[in-house]
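Recall the central idea of this unit: under ordinary conditions, the amino acid sequence of a chain determines the structure it adopts. In this exercise we apply that idea directly, starting from the sequence alone.
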Amino acid sequence: MTSDTIADPRTPLAPRRKGLNLEKWGWAYMRVSGVLLVVLIFGHLFVNLVMGEGVRQIDFAFVVGKYATPFWQWWDVLMLWLGLIHGTNGMRTIVNDYVTHNGTRRVLIWALWIVAGLLILLGTLVVFTFDPCIPPVPSSLAGICPA
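Accordingly, the structure predicted from this sequence is:
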């Protein structure tokens, strides 16, 4: 059989590789995280830009008020984690498609995941260790922060 002919439909399939299929799970992750990100991002935009006074309300005190509740902390962390992993997985797909040298591809993919991991770690630390009362305290928070 030459490469330009179609195999007989009754031809047995090639044996499948055993083990974890990372490409399949990456594909599924992209679909699920994409839907979740749409909900999270539009919720974020609605609360920040539509409710209340719109964009005029966003200042340091607004962020302090949002991060005072665990709900908004977890909302932003989930958006951060899903977005970074989604974007990194997309970049990994691009690297796999266009980089032909195995060594270069491996280095680039490792670099992508290391950078994503560091950004996830730093972003999570910022959200959960956010302290608005570090001097100098803005005058809008004078009543909240102890003197």
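The CA atoms of residues 81 and 120 lie 6 Å apart.
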